[in-house]
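Message: I would love a firmer grasp of how sequence relates to backbone shape in proteins. Thank you; the sequence and its tokens follow:
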Amino acid sequence: MRRRASLVLLALAVFCAALAPLLRWYAYPRLAKIPPNQYQEMVLEAKDATLIDYNDGMKPKKVDKVTIVQTLKGNVEASEEIEADAGKDVVVWDTLSYIIGPDGKMVSQIPERYIFDAHTQDPVHATGEMVDGDPVKREGIEFKWPFFTEPRDYLYFDAQTRTSSPIHYVGPRTYRGMEVYYFEQTVPWTKVPMPKKMPIEGIDPATIEQTTGTSLWYTAKAMFWVDPVTGAPVNAEQVIQQEMRGGIAASGPDGKLTAFAGHVKMRPDYAQHTLDLVKSNRTKVLALHTWAPGGLALGALGLLALSLWLEARSRRERTAPDPRPREAADARGVSA
């Protein structure tokens, strides 16, 4: 009976030992991916900001708060079309940054289409990739880091300038009890396109620079606290400055006029929601990548040890001498 049990345990040990690497190196690379139908909403705020007032002679004013509502929607139909040509899992995110002034009215809105590999988060170049209607060809990452982010610099795409530059790994941090990686990127003053959607009806941003000689310039310091397991930012902040330079609006070729200046942060309730979401996804990724393969490997070792122990006991019992014949001989001697 013990021998039979040891064989069953040995078979289970072999099964667990074979399943552990299969789960880690075959299942995980295929199952760990961004879902194509993801939807997410985020609210950010810049308190005590400076904002240009288009309705009052284009003068910059201090305001209590500027709100940015960011929506992200996975476009399943577009991703399936691109996958047919790309031959791999592709995610298409249609995003919108909707900027609201202190009076609740729109300041501007900037749509984006971001196309990337569902597993690696590398950009995938396809028709429709754009920022505010302008075709772009992204290099590097945007919005999300790869699974199991490394403590190093990455190339990060800035939507305002439509260019990519290094985002630097600064070091580990603790954010609300979670161990994260902290990254920073500083974008120097750069001439950028004006938003196509502006609060004044009838203004064509494409002709502003041509007719008035005024251009828009931008600089920013971007800060991200990234969960290294999922690659998802648990917090993001930006210190942004925008200036109108030259021409009529800025009172001459050397003039400067602040269009926006503020420190943009996640609203606290959305920051907590983001952290909870990342923690949930982190558990799933770790279970698939580390916990399940590791548990199976340890279970295989335990089952193998138990199987060998039972086999050793079974063999000792089979090779032990039978005391019954000697007891019978002793009994005959006594009777004589």
Observations:
- The two ends are 41 Å apart (CA to CA).
- The first strand starts at residue 39 and ends at 53.
- The CA atoms of residues 196 and 205 lie 6 Å apart.
- The chain has a mean pLDDT of 88.
